Amino acid sequence: MAKSSLSASQRSKIRRLATPKEQSPEDEGGELNIIPFLDIIVNILIFVLATVAITFTATIETTPPSSGGKGPRIISESKSLNLTVLITNDGISFKAAGGSVAPGCEGIGPGITIPAIGADPDGQPVLDYDAVTRCAKRLKDQSPDFKDETQIRITASNNISYRKLIGTIDAVRGSEPNKTDLFPDVLFAVPR
Amino acid sequence: MTPPAAAQPSVGGSVAQYKAELRKAKRRNERDHEIDFLNITAMLDMMTIILVFLLKNMASSSASIPQSKDLTLPAAFLQTEPHEEGVAVIVTKSQILVGDNPQPVVQHWSRESVAQSGLDAIYKKSGINDLHIVPLAESLLHVREIDNRIRNERKSGSGTSEAIVIVDETTPYRLLIEVLYTLGASSFGKYHLMVLSTKKSADG
Q1: Residue B194: which of B58, B90, B61, B69 has the closest Cα?
Q2: Quick check: is B114 in a domain?
Q3: What does pTM read for this prediction?
Q4: Which distant-in-sequence residues (6+ apart) come within 8 Å of A171 by Cβ?
């Protein structure tokens, strides 16, 4: 046999030369080990995604406030409603071109159109926004002339909070959430 | 050249036999080509880019408005995209800030007195009943000049500027009107009142 014809030193030499070489630590040094860095990056990424509170915001467009009936209100050729909303501690009053809207949104007359249904611990009135929406819709539906009217003037007592103001703007904007079929264009008026 | 002495068959097989055996042994011992090192550099590049993009995007978006005890936005039904162009005027529970300037133009007021007659007379031009806040107007004047220069560079006309008004939900109407009035007097003709977009009905 050919194999048996090799000497012991030849076999030893063959074994030594045929054994695959292990990489020495110096050979590995040429490659930068970025795995720990990658771990850090992944951890930061997960942390950022998990901790950032995503808040969705929107903006309500408006123009400078007016006082004494002056302002950028669009003058309509046709008969217009010219609706003004006044927020007080007692509730919400509607005032149209024909006069103040009576309590309960029925006809013309003095008084608070939508009375407050209580008071918050901080002294702010609890307002009935559903009734405000119903009243705004009722006033708008009274005449086909009011159909294209989208502007409303809003004013409030000095102490009324911004939250109540935004709630009222929401209530008069549309008959349903995300609808703008009533009065989406808001003008602020200076309280007298 | 003669091979090294160690490789010489001393007693046993011939050189041909020795080389054939060596080749066989090498073939036998040859390991399959294993992937013992995964190249993750490309993935690392991607991750870093995503991280930088997220951080940059969040820093510049409206979601970065710091909500704290001093500034809580009111919620509204609106689902529209927020307007992002304009000078930010921030009214918190205790201070008024303009743009990126961390120095407040007005600070430390009592809510009770502001809810009655607005800011103190020291901030007004002609008494407490005046709506014009002088320090705010001065700050806005500087911002308006910068805005005008930008508009001229863009050739978008030098009309009125726009303001993004970020107001705390407890701010009294009087203070809001004073801020809006001062903005109007400083040639800011359009405001964007920032609110939190919600699908839930607001309670009274």
Answers
A1: B90
A2: yes
A3: 0.72
A4: A127, A129, A130, A132, A133, A136
Q: Is A148 helix (H, G, I), strand (E, B) or coil?
A: coil
- Is B40's CB within 8 Å of A34's CB? yes
Identify whether the C-beta of residue B127 lies closer than 8 Å to the C-beta of residue B121: yes
Distance, C-alpha B192 to centroid of its chain: 19
Task: With beta carbons less than 8 A apart as the criterion, state whether B87 and B191 touch.
Answer: no
Model confidence over A48-103: pLDDT tens digits?
778 776 677 888 888 887 665 444 545 455 578 889 999 999 999 999 888 899 99
Q: Give B41's contacts in chain A (Cβ within 8 Å).
A: 34
* Residue B156 is assigned to a structural domain of this protein: yes
- Per the domain annotation, does B203 fall within a domain? no
d(CA B90, CA B98): 6
Please tell me the total count of domains within chain B.
1
CA A162 from centre of chain: 15
Q: In this structure, what DSSP letter does residue B22 have?
A: H
pLDDT tens digits, A135-154: 999 988 888 888 888 899 99
**Close Cβ partners of A99 (under 8 Å, ≥ 6 residues apart):** A108, A109
Q: What tokens does A123 get?
A: 């002294």
| B31 in reach of chain A (CB within 8 A) | yes
> How far apart are alpha carbons B150 and B164 in whole angstroms?
17
Q: Which amino acid is at A85?
A: V
User: In this complex, do A64 and B183 lie within 8 Å of one another by their Cβ atoms?
Assistant: yes
Q: Does A154 touch chain B (CB under 8 A)?
A: no
- A6–B9 CB contact, under 8 Å: yes
**Contact between residue B191 and residue A61 where contact means Cβ atoms under 8 Å apart:** yes
B6, part of any domain? no
CA distances for B31 relative to A18, A21, A111, A162, B35, angstroms:
11, 11, 96, 75, 12
Question: How near does any CA of chain B get to the CA of A66, in Å?
Answer: 8
Would you give the distance in Å from CA B148 to the centre of its chain? 24
- The tens digit of pLDDT for each residue in B91-127 reads 999 999 998 888 999 888 888 888 888 888 899 888 8
CA distance A60 to chain B (A): 5
CB neighbourhood size of B22 (10 A): 18
Residue B193 lies in domain: 66-197
Question: Which residues of chain A neighbour B28 with C-beta distances below 8 Å?
Answer: 18
